[in-house]
Structure formats: C-alpha cells, structure tokens
Amino acid sequence: MKRLILVLLLIVPGLARADLEFTVTGGNTRAKPIAIVPFAGNDPAQTDVAGIIEADLNRSGLFQSLPRGDMLERPNEPGQVDFRNWRAVNMESLVIGRMNREPGSDRMSTRFFLLDVYRGEQLIAYDMPPVAPDQLRYVAHQIADLIFERLTGIPGIFNTKIAYVASSGFGPSRTYQLLIADADGFNPRTIASSRETLMSPAWSPDRKKLAYVAYERGRSGIYVHDIATGVVKRVISEKGINGSPAWSPDGTQLAITLSYETNPDIYIIDVASGRKRRITDHYGIDTEPAFAPDGQSIVFTSDRGGQPQLYRTSVGGGDAQRITFQGKQNLRASFAPDGKSLALVNVENSSYRIALLDLASGNLRILSDGNMDESPSFAPNGAVIIYATQKSGAAELATVTTDGRVKQRLRQPGDVREPAWSPLSR
Fold first, then answer.
1. Domains in the chain, please, with CATH?
2. Pair type for strands 209-216 and 219-226
3. How many CB atoms lie under 10 A from the CB of residue 185?
4. pLDDT digits (tens, 9 = 90+) for 220-250
5. Helices 136-152 & 49-59 angle (0-180, nearest 10)
6. Which residues form the signal peptide (predicted)?
7. Which residue among 101, 186, 206, 340 has the highest number of C-beta atoms inside a 10 angstrom radius?
C-alpha cells in the first residue's frame, strides 16, 4: 500500500535509551544473593555488560546483587577466585568474565563463568560469539538468560521484546504510536504513528511480524508489519469492526473479530491469501480470540450469557463451552505457553484485575491489585504476565509473576497501553 498515511517507520539504530522505567516490589525476602563482578576489558562508559546482567537479574525479583563497593576482590578467571571472600559477604552465586577485542576489528568477544560459592564449583563457562559494540546489550541479556535458567530452571526472558501503544496530546492533536522495545525498556522504536487509534498488537510466533488494528479515515483494518523490512500489509478492512488479531501457532493465520455480516463474530483469516472463514455465529457479541498453543481450539470473550465471559470452541467451529464462572465478568484471555492456564481480566465490584485461570481445575486466582487493569500478555517462559493499569489518571504498564509475588511498574510519560510480549528468539 503506497498510500498508507497512518504508518511512519522510524528506524533508530544504536538507540539505547530506556523510555520505560522499572520499579520492582515484592520478592526480596526470597531473592537469591548473587555477585556480578565487572568484566575485565569492558568499557562501562560505552556498555556496562556486567551492569546490564545485574539489572536484569534484580528486575526479576528472584535475585539480589551485591553492590560493587562491597566486593572484596574482582577476579575475571576461576583460578583468581578466593571463595572465602564471597562466603564472607553471604553470596550464593558469582559471575565473572572477560571481554576481548577481535584482532583487526572492533568486534568484542565475551567469556563468562557462573560459580557456586558454597560448593566452590563452576556451573557455567561460556564463550559468546564476537559482536559489534552496539550489540553488547543483547550479549548481556543472553548471558542473563543463561544464568537465570541455570539457577532457576526457568528460561530467561531478558533478550525478548515488548510491543505497546503510547498516546500523547489532547483532542485533535492527540497522537498514537506503536512501539517495540527490549524487555528492559531500552531501544524503543516507533513502527507506526497515527492521529487515529492504534490497538491490539500481536506478535507472530517467529517474532518477525506484528499484527495490529489501525484506522484510516475512520475505518478500521488489521495490518501486519514486517519488523525487519518495515513492509506493511493490510490483511483486511471490512465494513464495521475489524479487531483483536491473534496469530495461529504456525504463523499462517489470524483469528479476528468481524461484524460486516451480522453481530461481531470470530473468523479465521489466511494471512497470505486473505481467505476467511467464520468460526462463531451467535446473536451475542463474540470478540478477543486467542489460539490455544496446540492450534486446535480458540478461547474468546462473549456476552451470549448476558455478561462477558470466556468460551472455548474448536478451530473448526461448532458449539462453544463456557469456561469462566467466578466473577461478574471475565474477558481478554491470553494463553500460557504450555496451554494449561489463561491470563485474563476479572471484573468484580467494578474492579478490573488480572487473574490466572487453571484450565484443568477451573480455579481462578487474582494476581493484580489495581482497579483498572487490562490487556494481559504472557511472557514466553510462562512465569510473568505484562498488562496495562491506570495510575493517577494515566495508563502505564506493569508485570506480575504468576504466583503473584513479584510486581513491577513500567513508567513512561503519557498513556501506555495494549502490551504484548514477544516469543523467544528462534
């Protein structure tokens, strides 16, 4: 589409600014003590690799790092470590490393070690591939992921991305932006900007595309943006509602909400060909579909019973079964990566909160504590949920672990909504 005036692509290589500011609450009572020693050969004025690893692990709420001023030594090889020094400051784990410039190049290689302080054992020894200086943040995130998984048994998510919608201004000057940022809020870049509403970003399973809803001259449409090339494809723009895109697990289809035939119903559309088929056909409003990870069923929101609740149906259509019963309303479902639970918005006593539904038992547990929490999205390791919340009249992002113990606020000027967490990099 040569004349897609709503999209403004802004590629900003090398940008390392955090528009999202994290504040962590909870979790400290069970946090594991860990020391991340500044890496030898690293220029922290450019990219402090050890500092990024430290920030990643602290932000998880599961680790508490030792301040650098309290370190009794600064080794960079296992043979230089005196474990007595680290036991004296009650550390359980130790991370050390060294960086070297490749001969005849500005590329940097990184070697790091993870050590068990009390056993005096080496847990990880790893050589990261050489990268250009502007890629060192991603190396640091990869190292943090490796450490996190070795110590917790859970895949790390520090090298993932988040997409979100930000808006600023008032009235006719109000502007909406669709942004992608690193999981720690750094390197934000705008991929779409419009004076009309942008909403419902959804990552493709391979993390290469982003589907979303945009408006052009007041008419909604569903668009797919190729992250690498910046090419934007309008998938569909029927009369009426075109909303809530959700990718199939194989990345070839989108489940969407359309209303051009009758009431809003769920359809599946083939992204390449544009062919669509109707999945639900009901006098109620059916919306907000989500594919199960096995691709065999879809969960969606419907008011067919009088109030919005979640229902499940086969991708082939047919009878839909209600699956939520606790609370006045339940809506906006997001599947856990293993397909065993749903993050959703539970409404009770005029409070909108994020909840976790165990699909096997039907047990529903409230996780957030706001009054206007919405748009939950699972992290790809299934351990954290990102969502939007209202704070002092403005919308911001927040995360909560699935046990409800660790909560974070991700602040940015203006309203920030509609978060979506990317899959792991393939």
1. 31-152 (3.40.50.10070), 162-421 (2.120.10.30)
2. antiparallel
3. 19
4. 999 999 999 999 999 999 999 999 999 999 9
5. 40
6. 1-18
7. 186
